[in-house]
Design goal:
Blueprint: H1 3-21, H2 28-50, H3 56-85, H4 94-119, H5 126-141, H6 149-165, H7 170-193
């Protein structure tokens, strides 16, 4: 066996091990689409907040639930499509379960904390906490999927911390974090992994 054959064999072994321990069906296009959803949602939220005489909290809460559901559905469909293109099935195997647990645990904790603050009408740091906990969720999940996902997580945390010092700009920071950062990351992801 010559050196090139040995290198090819090692590369094949590495790819098999990576496929068995990491969730590799994430789609960069889903990140771009979710970023677009978030930018549109921020514009609609801005419009709702400018209105008078309506229950803004209730409308925004229903709108947020719709956005989350639409984002999850888009992600699942795009992951399934990518898996099919790669001649694999999207399944709930060990790497997928680890990814989901490590992503949704910090996200759920942050979400409950934000709901508690909203319930008590302490709105000030809600967007900051959303960005920070989302960043923690991305970093935690990056161990079970593409490792560069952690950079999006770091960016979300930094943006959330900056947002915590700024007054009256929560929606702008929210749109940058969940919208623009997602679009930029999705484009980078597509150029790197989905050529």
């Amino acid at each position: 066996m010559n050196n090139q054959e040995a290198l090819n064999t090692l590369k094949d072994i590495r790819e098999m091990m990576e496929k068995s321990t990491r969730f590799l069906s994430l789609s960069g296009w889903s990140s771009v689409i979710i970023g677009i959803y978030s930018c549109i949602a921020a514009m609609i939220a801005h419009y709702v907040l400018a209105q008078t005489g309506i229950d803004k909290t209730g409308i925004l809460f229903l709108f947020a639930i719709t956005l989350i559901a639409l984002s999850l559905l888009t992600t699942i469909l795009m992951c399934r499509h990518k898996a099919q293109r790669q001649h694999r099935q999207l399944q709930l195997d060990l790497p997928t379960r680890r990814l989901l647990w490590n992503f949704f645990l910090p996200l759920l904790v942050g979400g409950i904390l934000c709901l508690s603050l909203i319930w008590q009408q302490h709105y000030g740091l809600t967007s900051s906490l959303m960005l920070i906990f989302y960043g923690i969720a991305l970093i935690s999940a990056s161990h079970y999927t593409y490792s560069n996902t952690r950079y999006l997580g770091y960016a979300e945390i930094i943006l959330g911390l900056i947002d915590s010092f700024m007054v009256n700009h929560a929606l702008l920071f929210w749109m940058i974090g969940f919208g623009i950062f997602h679009i930029i990351y999705g484009i980078f992801f597509c150029l790197k992994y989905e050529k």
